[in-house]
Write a structure and sequence with these properties.
Structural class: alpha+beta
Radius of gyration: 62 Å
Strand order of the largest sheet: 1-4-3-2-6-5-7
Order of helices and strands: HEEEEEEEHHHHHHHEEEEEHEEH
Strand content: 15-25%
Shape: elongated
Largest sheet: 7 strands, mixed, barrel
Helix content: 40-55%
Distance between the termini: 171 Å
């Protein structure tokens, strides 16, 4: 089929119109052969934004501004119609930020992605943001500097005025006098320095000797540093020991003891009490001494020859009973014996030398008194032998009787002898 001339002209006109329309849209930033998604953003002021302005996401062009027009509610707000030809999804909460792209003030619309998991749909409204332009930013940076410069100039004016008031004729005279006195002082210092040089030169040999001696002293200290450290450590240990001794409390106790001793000596000196009479009456002392010797001889003879005096005797001195029982007496099997060595109001160490030679000494506390006993014996004859031995060291030692481990009296023990 052959085209007529009219058909050719029509085809050319349609092609030209299509090319023209595509070219116009291309110059506007639109591509009629691409699918676009349209979104809207609302601003109080667009800051000179125009249609065909580039829209970017992280610096990449993804669309353009298709149109800008006033809102229909007559508030004066501007509606910016944004066309995106990139299929990148926009989450809910994404914003369109108008910013400057260069120093000349050219604008660009930056898309800031939201953090929602849901996506915006075409024709939805983006959040709007507006950056300050270059001039506004520069003004914000320069404004503080300008304020500081103005305050500096005001301070300089105040300083100049103060200096003008200070540098009057009288002040100039005072400054001149101060300079003259300073010059004189420097001359005096120079004279003193020359005198010091003369003195040092004259005493140079002595100074050299002194420095040499100091060097020897420091050398000796360095060589004996270990000994000095040992001495200091000993002093530290000694000070710690003194601190732990509680000297104040000890001195107070000593002072109290001295006062008590002084009172005791004063009573003895005035013959108050038995000890005072004994010290101040020699005849009484001699009588007591003689009686003690006779009593000792009697007790020794009584211990060695009991049958010479009595077959059975019991002397009651209050609560304590001293008994002499014939050695042939035999007690029941459940009767045991212990020797009470001594009693004390303060405890005595069982390893004390006073218990030397005595086996298995035990301690019994009765109320506020400590009683020390020998080991239990079932043989009366054996315990009598032990009693005779320990009475030399413990004259007050007495025999104790126990039935099934419980202490009994002397009379009750006698009733439990074997017939």
């Amino acid at each position: 089929m052959k085209l007529t001339k009219t058909s050719k002209i029509g085809i050319l006109v349609v092609f030209s119109l299509t090319l023209l329309i595509w070219g116009i849209n291309f110059l506007k930033g639109r591509d009629i052969f691409r699918t676009e998604k349209v979104f809207y953003a609302r601003y109080k002021d667009v800051g000179g934004l125009t249609a065909t302005t580039v829209v970017t996401l992280n610096g990449l062009k993804i669309g353009y501004v298709r149109d800008i027009y006033f809102a229909e509610d007559l508030t004066g707000d501007l509606i910016v119609k944004v066309a995106l030809h990139n299929n990148f999804p926009l989450p809910i909460g994404s914003s369109a930020q108008i910013a400057s792209s260069d120093l000349l003030g050219s604008k660009v619309v930056k898309i800031n992605l939201g953090k929602s998991s849901r996506l915006l749909q075409p024709s939805d409204t983006l959040l709007s943001k507006m950056d300050a332009d270059i001039m506004q930013q520069v003004n914000e940076q320069i404004a503080p500097i300008k304020a500081k410069a103005e305050r500096l100039i005001e301070n300089l004016d105040s300083i100049v005025a103060s200096v003008s008031n200070i540098l009057n004729i009288e002040s100039q005279k005072n400054i001149t006098e101060s300079i003259r006195q300073t010059h004189q002082t420097m001359e005096n210092l120079q004279n003193i320095s020359s005198n010091l040089n003369d003195i040092i030169s004259g005493q140079k040999r002595n100074l050299t000797s002194t420095i040499s001696n100091l060097s020897e002293i420091t050398g000796n200290l360095k060589n004996n540093s270990s000994k000095l450290d040992h001495i200091m450590s000993n002093i530290e240990v000694f000070s710690d020991s003194i601190k732990k001794l509680e000297l104040n409390k000890t001195i107070k106790h000593i002072n109290g003891s001295v006062e008590n001793l002084n009172r005791l000596l004063s009573k003895i000196d005035t013959a108050n009490g038995s000890l005072g009479l004994l010290v101040n009456d020699p005849e009484l002392y001699q009588n007591i001494n003689s009686s003690t010797e006779n009593l000792n001889r009697l007790l020794v003879d009584l211990r060695q020859n009991p049958k010479r005096y009595v077959h059975f005797a019991a002397l009651d001195f209050g609560k304590k009973i001293t008994a002499i029982i014939p050695s042939e007496t035999q007690f029941l099997d459940n009767i045991t014996f212990k020797i009470k060595l001594l009693s004390s109001h303060t405890p005595i160490n069982l390893t004390s030398p006073i218990f030397k030679g005595i086996n298995e000494v035990s301690e019994l506390k009765v109320e506020n008194e400590y009683i020390y006993l020998t080991a239990a014996e079932s043989s009366y004859n054996k315990v009598r032998i032990i009693l005779n031995k320990v009475q030399d060291a413990f004259p007050e030692a007495v025999l104790k009787y126990y039935k099934s481990g419980k202490e009994i009296s002397f009379k009750k023990a006698l009733k439990l002898t074997k017939k």
